[in-house]
Amino acid sequence: MVQPRVVLLRAPGTNADQEAGFAFQTAGAQVEFLHINAVLENPAALEQFQILCVPGGFSYGDDISAGRILANQMRHHLAEQLRAFKDAGKLILGICNGFQILIKSGVLLPDRAEDPIGTLTLNDSGKYEDRWVNLRVEGDRSVFLKGIESMYLPVAHAEGKFVPRDQATFEQLERAGQLVLRYCSAEDASNPNAELPYPLNPNGACGNVAGLCDESGRVLGLMPHPERFIDPTHHPRWTRQKPTVGDGLLLFQNAVAYFR
Amino acid sequence: MTLWQVDIHPAPGQPDILARGILSEAKELGLETCEIKAIRGFLVQGDLNEAQIGRLARELFADLVVDHTVVAKVGEASLAETPAGFAHLVHVLPKPGVTDPVAESARNAISDFGLTADAVCTFRKFWLSKLPDEHLQKMCSKLLANESIEQIVHGPLNLQRLHVGSTYAFELETIPLRSLGSDELVSLSKARTLSLTLIEMQVIQQHFQKVGRDPTDIELESIAQTWSEHCSHKTLAGRIAYKDENGEKRFQNMLKETIFAATQKIRRDLGENDWCVSVFKDNAGIVKFHEDFHVAFKVETHNRPSAIEPYGGANTGIGGVIRDTLGTGLGAKPVCSTDVFCFAPPNTKTADLPPGVLHPQRIMRRVVAGVRDYGNRMGIPTVNGSIFFDENYVGNPLVFCGNVGIIPPAMSFKETQPNDLIVAIGGRTGRDGIHGATFSSVELDSQSEKTSSGAVQIGNAIVEKMVADVLLQARDRGLFNAVTDCGAGGFSSAVGEMGAELGAEVWLEKSPLKYAGLSYTEIWISEAQERMVFAVPEAKWAEFEALCRSENVEATVIGRFVPTGRLKLMYQGDQVGELDMHFLHEGRPPIERQAFFQPVAQPPLQLPPQLDHRATLLKLLSSWNICSKEWVVRQYDHEVQGGSVIKPLTGIENDGPSDAAVVRPVLSSRRGIVVSNGLAPRQGNIDPYNMAASAIDEAVRNCVAVGADPARIAILDNFCWGYTDRPQTLGSLVRAALACHDVAIGLGTPFISGKDSLNNEFSYGEGADRKTISIPPTLLISALGQVEDVSTCVTMDLKQPGNLLYQVGKTHAHFGGSQLCQSLGLSGGDVPQVDVPLAKQTFAAIHQAIQAGCIAACHDLSDGGLAVGVAEMAFAGGCGVRVRLEDVPCESRQVGSAASHVAVALYAESNTRFLCEVPRKNAQQFEKLLGSVPHAVIGEVTDTGRVQIAPPADSQAPAWLIDLSIAELKEAWQKPLRW
């Protein structure tokens, strides 16, 4: 049995690295933490790993805009290395701030800096909010979401509203099956694009998009925090409903199982 | 050198969220509204050409999917084009020297493009539609900017270059102290904001007469900082002659003989089962928790700065208390935070505000934003809190920030060693907050907004996060012998404290500065944020420095701890100060203060003969102190670190009010930490003894209600009082401290740390019209509980129709300071007391019942009494409930009419009471566990979706005193703060 090695990328302001690491460990992976400075000094350090996770937090304070500064560092200095990582059939996961970084660096949706394909911007509510949301998986493109139909997870962000460059871009991503994770109501709805009201769609994201993957399905970025629901007592109503397993854990287990 | 301006506009079709927020706030404050267009931008100074700044604008500053930019040299016409329908252009920029974290990050990010900027500054820019001048000024000063940290520029920006410091020419300043008379000593203390009394000035004078020279300015400042109320707690830890109806009592050290003495007694009684580790000596108190970790807890206030600049005040308040945890022992890892605020009601009319104060709603919004932005960035969940509203906080809002950390047992103590290097890491030193330590000992007045701005700072959370990251790694590698944070007093306090037993030599010019121009004294007393001081053995310095560098943290040797017993201050080779450590720390003259307390007999409460209970309950639920605080809670990340167990909001729709928070700080363990708080300021002016007892009871019962073991609860005190030089004011504080002593011993809950903030009074007006507002005596008790297995915890939401509802504990006619009195505009009545032995028994019984799995839901009864408690449990659980007042364990049967019995049962705020939902099959076991603790079945959970309360059988009232749908009740509760 292969035990994949996961690297959690840290930067100034990363703050959800420990629990993401714990989630990967619980799912059966070997976990290491690397600071961005160490990776910039020696980009080849990434090669020994099968999974790269960019965890949540406020990289460089989210100063200027969320994830922007770390995303630029990756675009300027690590683009080659990350492309090779992807091409080698490995997995990349960006959670919350990690999602913001993957999209703004062009790792998730390859683009040119002066012509971005999409972004994550300030919530329509204008503020940071921590709340639980219902999510539905669209299609089977993402390796991480294999076999998962729906999840209940917390979001905690100020800048999570997905906005594509234009309607054509949105349709193209949708046709390609890349808009894999959508905010939904607990009761479900047939049309995933029908604009849901706040707080079902907590930030006003276009098409209720909560997460998307690259063309290969091996790179996933999502705003909700799967690492915050891996224990039954994480569920906000665990004293009522007694869940037996955390929805988020399945995502990490899928990543590990991919290498078995 | 060019100064470029980059304006960032929302792209066509994108919302102007900044403007929308300002407009809604303007409306709530009753300001003249107008059209607003708001954008943000950057000033960039450097040798950059148009193509380069254009690239930075597109790829760094703007997000091209949602923004568009206007880039030009400052002053060019394209930047000043006024959109149609707008008349005024206003820029808001940080004042020179004010921390601008985004600008600092931007400068570094520019270098990642291979470009260089000498300076960057952020700004906000507004266009407003035509307004009369007076209204425009008001908008600017009340909403668009805070002039204590920001400058307002009307019209286009027209500056040549950004401020980057000034030159400083060294000149040693000596103060001719020895020759001064009494009056001159007093004016010297005042002129230099030393906050030293005449007697203290005289002792310093005598000391230097003995030494045979005059002090330098830095020596005098060092003494003032060390002797400040903030650093030495000279009032409460001093001599007090206290007199009350029981006679006289002389304290040598009041805190030591009351609060600390209680802890010592509890520890002695516990013997070898003592679970306290370090109390009242380090930056936070430490108790045992888990085999691999102890837990540390500290709560402190940041009141004065928050009154003037609430965002920065709250920012640096939470930043400071996190550094306390980090600076405890060899460094505890912060795992959760709690924040409690006291404000004037948000609906206070602007016309009713005294001059010079910010509107309480503005203060509240900015304080919440300050805690949010700092706490969330630090990655520390803010899991618990409370907000208390009272008119008398109008000039002195209170901001309590608390932090819990975990620490390996072997790392719980520190000791500076001779010849250790003094190493400062983290933020650079600027003029920030000079005189914060002494300022926080001074009464605020209507001029404070203008005169005290030097003491106001903005935090930079990421710098502190980086410091925390390297601190914990350095700790685990054994790279230092001691650590403390730079709080009030800056280096002077930190180095003075760490070197108190040894001695120290400091090379002030080594300290990295934010900008040139600081004098040696400013470096020494600056309160720039995010700095910590370490004692690093010389042999470990290289590794320590390399670790810091690897994570972009600046570390600098600024001196050495030397076994001389003296503090020697050097600047570029010149000695600028030399003080005896013993005089510095022990030389302060003991002052005996007078304290006097006289119990005031309370007039009996006259309740109206007929109360509309339906309306009363709705009104109580909508009162500021009871209503939902979801607007605040949701803005805090309460789940980061992955250990959340009981969240601040709970129930079927995740929106009911939890009694306490539970987190699991060690992810591989089932053991949990419980955090709660208690405070009862309205009772403070009536009966401070019972106010303190009530606050302790509330904090403990909140903890117990979710499952904490009452035999393992540690508590913290925070005294916020008025002007304690007044014997009556100090007397009420001593009275409260006596209660702390008695109740802590009675319950077996040790105090492990504490803090005080005195002289919280606000004065305005001149001469005969001079008015002073004092805050109510406010004692915050913060509780730190433990649960062995978090899966035994319970929440307060009703679970299942058919289950029984018990009241545990007895209701008495306690209305003094109650929410009912507040709502009805009544005063009088007895304040709630605590039957301490019964409370202890009750807490133990509830805990056993929770452990045994008997209880489906548990909620403590507090503000608003039974009626509010029942309603909260019902709408949180989405269940109905039927209650029979007839069966409520209630002491008023003998005393009053049927009508007053109903009011007592429904609204009295007696302590040590719980509502427990118990499945019928557990009832027998539950009752057996409660034994002689007063309890009764008062109703049952229903599926009607209604709260129905039946009157006693002997009353003339209709079938239901209260019959309201949970939707209506919840709406009343949620509406006030749905901002």
Task: Describe the fold and architecture.
The complex is a heterodimer of chains A (260) and B (979). By secondary structure, chain A is of the alpha/beta class. Chain A is 26% helix and 23% strand. Chain A contains eight helices and eleven strands. In chain A, the strands form two sheets. In chain A, strands 2-1-3-4-11-10-9-6-7 form a nine-stranded mixed β-sheet. In chain A, strands 5-8 form a two-stranded antiparallel ribbon. In chain A, strand 10 and strand 11 form a beta hairpin. Chain A is globular and about 50 Å long. The mean pLDDT of chain A is 95. The longest helix of chain B is centred in the C-terminal third of the chain and has 21 residues. About 1% of the residues of chain B have low confidence. The chains are: A alpha/beta (260), B alpha+beta (979).
Outline of the structure:
The complex is a heterodimer of chains A (260) and B (979). With 260 residues, chain A is α/β, with parallel strands linked by helices. In chain A, 26% of the residues lie in helices and 23% in strands.
Primary descriptors:
heterodimer, A: 260 residues, alpha/beta, nine-stranded mixed beta sheet, 8 helices, 11 strands, B: seven-stranded mixed beta sheet, seven-stranded mixed beta sheet, 30 helices
Cα gyration radius of chain B (Å): 29 Å
For the termini of chain B, the CA-CA separation is 46 Å
The residue-averaged pLDDT of chain A reads: 95
Mean pLDDT of chain B: 93
Helix count, DSSP H or I runs of 4 or more residues of chain A: 8
Name the beta content range of chain A: 15-25%
Q: Which secondary-structure class do the elements of chain B indicate?
A: alpha+beta
The secondary-structure element order of chain A is EHEHEHHEHEEEEHEEEHH
Question: Which percent band covers the strand fraction of chain B?
Answer: 15-25%
What distance separates the N and C termini of chain A?
6 Å
Question: Largest beta sheet of chain A, briefly?
Answer: 9 strands, mixed
**Broad shape of chain A:** globular
Number of strands of chain B: 40
Cα gyration radius of chain A (Å): 17 Å
Helix content of chain B: 25-40%
